[in-house]
Design brief:
The chain has 674 residues and is an alpha+beta fold. It is built from 31 helices and 14 strands.
């Protein structure tokens, strides 16, 4: 155990493969995979036995392990709303020193904790082998403390998990007696699968220390005999019910993406909503749509008013039913976007807001694990902030199997497909989305975006033109057209666009955002024509303001604050300032922003060749396994003509639209656009 722990420490937060561990700790002796699994499990149990703390062992499925400093759990439910979320979210943890870790283990005084670490960094797509029903085996939780309360709580948590998971559509849970018998035999995961048919094992350990109850959880895939997820939770001994609820919510979150997408909508009881809760939440949801539309048109104060009212309504509904999933999802959206005045005033990153919103999503899934809106919310979190592409896809497909008209599922899934290069499939979802909700500007903009990614430039610009004619005050949309034309390098089209905007607003009071855009476009035109200094001066000033806390609102014209570095990167790049562009792109990727898919590697408008030839640029796309996976999928997609882009040999590719898509586009835009 000590040798494995030291090997992980000395790796300095880099991945240590199982082969590395065999060489370093077993001297390449022939030992089974179970030997490593047992040591890792015992190290996690040791962390519980010592107490709360400072590190986690992250399992990377089919890759290895990584030792990380673990942040404290962020729990919105346990933090009063009046308390700034910034106080509940820790700063980035420091690296663990070997000396400090050894001292802590030797003395038993350093508190240790395991943080959440999902494993599947580069999934092999196995849709064809996913079982029609997911079979789970919940092993009895082990106890690491010799007191009267811990064994009782362990049995309670185990039974609660079986009960909650048994309500989830597409899941079968092996009964308690059989689970106990299997646990006593101490079989490997593979043998358990052979004897019971279980696809996943849920296991855990519980320890009590300093009036805190610490729970370690893990999921093991019996098909690969690999642990695919683990986490650590800690709660007060005075509130064990809350901790039990947290445990079930975490497990349901992880399993939700592994259920076959074509399962029936319900198994067991459905969630029954109070009529007053339904009324209040419906009003809040309508206000949320207004918030986004107001932000897209640069109306910040009315947007705050609507968001504050929505927050007030759902808090009233949660006083009636604290587990209502729809109310919880409204709070999740408000929190993630920082839309209320209270939330917007807190200096949090987009990632921190999203992490806080995840607690509401988990609670919604625990209340109704077949709720399509909750499934989509979790999938969108995975897509946007964790790059868990396959898990997100499974959640989107399951939501659409439950409700084929699930607007947010078509929206989020379509964007993910565009990022990963499956633009033709994404366009199909964008067309469906447009048919379902053609008047909502936030949803209708998906159509020109996906048309553009499919190489249908004229069709995309025609759709943008229609949208602008209907809403010339849509600042979000106006900037998007600017980005499209600028990164395409079309200075003439950009100049014509500026003339058109000026004409639309001639004699009218122009919003600040549109004034700023009309000042920026001439500078961008000059930059494309070899005179970049005017745009660079504007960019430098914007960047100084951004770094000083400017644009501090969580969303700007509907864009997440942490998408702005990606936009800065694009503008610096096409202005010829490649060092600044690489720095900004680095910052954007660290914040999980892939804002403009056409500029990603193999896209139709990649960053300029001089920037791409810089080794620093190349390293940006390979340092994260999940990002490297996305880029490789894009390359494969371009070769398969699923997306407009550039092949490694320099050839440009434009996919041929299937006749079914051509027909649907013609109905919306007319045949001239094709």
């Amino acid at each position: 155990m000590m040798m494995v722990l030291l090997t992980l420490v000395e790796a300095q937060e880099q991945v240590v493969t199982r082969e590395d561990l065999l060489r370093a700790c077993w001297e390449n002796r022939a030992v089974s995979d179970d030997a490593i699994n047992r040591v890792i499990s015992r190290l996690r149990a040791l962390s519980l036995d010592i107490g709360e703390g400072c590190f986690q062992i992250e399992t990377l499925s089919k890759v290895g392990y990584r030792l990380l400093a673990a942040p404290q759990n962020v729990s919105v439910e346990k933090t009063p709303f009046e308390t700034p979320l910034a106080e509940a979210i820790p700063s980035e943890p420091a690296r663990i020193s070997r000396r400090a870790l050894l001292f802590g283990i030797g003395s038993g005084t350093v508190a240790l904790a395991l943080g959440a670490g999902y494993a599947a960094l580069r999934h092999t797509r196995r849709q064809e082998t996913v079982p029609s029903v997911l079979v789970l085996l919940v092993l009895p939780f082990s106890t690491l403390s010799n007191d009267a309360v811990t064994p009782l709580f362990a049995r309670s948590v185990t039974e609660a998990l079986r009960g909650e998971l048994g309500r989830v559509s597409g899941i079968q849970v092996i009964a308690a007696m059989s689970s106990q018998a299997i646990a006593q035999q101490q079989l490997s995961a593979g043998l358990i699968r052979q004897r019971t048919g279980a696809d996943l094992l849920v296991d855990g350990s519980i320890a009590t220390a300093n009036e805190r109850v610490n729970v370690s959880l893990s999921l093991t895939d019996t098909h690969t005999d690999q642990q695919v997820w683990s986490t650590f939770l800690s709660g007060s001994a005075d509130n064990l019910l809350q901790l039990q609820n947290d445990v079930t919510a975490q497990v349901i979150q992880q399993i939700a993406s592994k259920i076959h997408s074509n399962q029936p909508t319900t198994i067991g009881p459905t969630y029954h909503r109070d009529p007053e809760v339904y009324r209040l939440t419906l009003q809040a949801q309508e206000l949320l749509e207004n918030v986004r539309a107001l932000r897209m048109t640069d109306q910040a104060e009315p947007a705050f008013d609507a968001a504050d009212e929505a927050d007030k309504l759902v808090r009233q509904s949660l006083k009636i039913d604290g587990n209502d999933p729809e109310s919880l999802l409204v709070l999740a959206q408000l929190t993630r976007n920082g839309w209320t005045r209270t939330l917007a005033a807190q200096p949090l990153t987009t990632m921190q807001r999203a992490t806080a919103s995840l607690e509401y999503i988990r609670k919604a899934l625990r209340s109704d694990a077949a709720n399509p809106a909750a499934l989509v919310s979790l999938g969108d979190y995975y897509r946007r902030f964790e790059w868990r592409w396959d898990d997100a896809e499974a959640l989107f497909k399951r939501a659409l199997a439950i409700n084929q008209s699930m607007i947010e599922a078509h929206w989020s899934y379509g964007y993910q497909l565009g990022v990963l290069g499956n633009a033709l499939e994404g366009l199909d979802h964008a067309l469906t989305l447009f048919q379902l909700d053609p008047k909502n500007p936030w949803h209708s903009v998906a159509l020109p975006r996906l048309l553009y990614l499919c190489g249908q430039y004229e069709g995309a610009m025609k759709r943008y033109d229609i949208e602008i004619s209907a809403a010339p005050n849509n600042v979000f949309l106006l900037y998007e057209v600017y980005f499209t034309l600028f990164t395409k390098g079309d200075s003439s089209a950009l100049q014509r666009y500026a003339f058109r905007l000026a004409g639309l607003w001639s004699g009218k009071t122009m919003p600040d955002g549109i004034c700023a855009l009309l000042k920026r476009i001439p500078a961008a035109v000059a930059a494309l024509n070899g005179q970049p200094q005017g745009l660079i001066t504007q960019l430098d000033a914007d960047l100084v303001a951004f770094n000083a806390g400017g644009a501090a609102a969580a969303t700007l014209h509907g864009r997440a604050r942490d998408d702005l570095p990606y936009i800065f990167a694009m503008e610096y790049a096409w202005a010829g300032r490649f060092d600044q562009a690489i720095t900004m792109l680095d910052k954007a990727l660290a914040a999980r922003s892939l804002y403009w898919p056409a500029c990603l590697p193999y896209g139709s408008t990649p960053f300029p060749a001089q920037m791409r030839s810089d080794p620093r640029y190349e390293s940006l796309w390979t340092r994260e396994t999940r990002l490297a996976d996305a880029i490789e999928r894009r390359r494969v997609a371009v070769e398969a003509r699923q997306m407009a882009g550039t092949l490694p040999d320099g050839r440009d590719v434009v996919p041929v639209l299937p006749s079914s898509l051509q027909y649907r586009i013609e109905k919306i835009l007319g045949s001239s656009s094709l």
